[in-house]
Amino acid sequence: MLRVVPRHPRRISTVEMKERLRAAGFDTTLRTVQRDLIKLSSSLPLLGDDSKPQGWSWQADAPQLDLPALEPQAALVFYLAERYLTPLLPSSTLDYLSPWFRTASGVLDNQHQDLSTWRDKVRILAPGQPMLAPSIDREVQRVVTQALLLNRRLTVTYRPRAGIEDKNYEVNPLGIVVRDQMIYLVCTLREYDDIKQLVLGRMRSAQLQDKRARKLKHFDLDEYISRGEFGFPIETGRTITLTVDFDAEVANGFIERPLDVKQVTEVINETTVRMTATVPDTAELRRWLLGFGKHAVVMEPAALRSEMTSLVNEMHQRYLDQTRKAL
Asked: Do 214 and 165 belong together in one domain?
């Protein structure tokens, strides 16, 4: 009976509850249901209203009934989800999950010392230089998520990256991607097919529309990402066969985490490891290569090798110029 009681502000009438119990194989009377609920509400956070027939609900902040019966490891997963997903989930979802989070914390606190202290021993680090996540309006995040779930259009007030004035867009949401603490809405605008990426942190407001979102034929979010669209492609859909000579001391990074399922590594000598992989041609690839500094030299393709050579020379010249100014 308690399993069918929803959380406030939702409610279930005693008549509906009796019918659900009957469908589940429990033959009882309306009077018995009412009497049992009143008795249970004296020790559990249940609320009965004054409607006829009477309606019942769990208090909004009531602990989740089922969680204490789960294994403590499941409670730890809820704790980690709260810690690391809070910046990514809309406030409405977090509010709904808060009873699970609170109960999970209580379950862990009541365990023996080894498990209760595990929370202090697990951390997840983002790749690259640590940076603070951008601020996102809670209402904007809620509306965007709702539009995506309901497949509805929305109107957003947005500040373009290079713009100085806000602009209003009618948006057809296609998906949400989280990358380096940035949340992107993948979408199309109005009746166009061009796929855009809108940063939630640049949205000033968002309003849900009654119109259904316009679907993009054959769109697949995974395929879109695999093309390197979030690596800022030099040319949409273009891939290159990349060959790079790395110092052996940094080779473990791409050996343990290959760039491509068909990546080939070859030991050239004691100090050099050559890697060959097919990858999207993106600006992100260039930043990745530059991150190795003097420990990586592009061999192929020739055009990328020439581009990297020019870039390094320009960097060198800027450092020389700044040094002369300082003197």
From this structure: yes
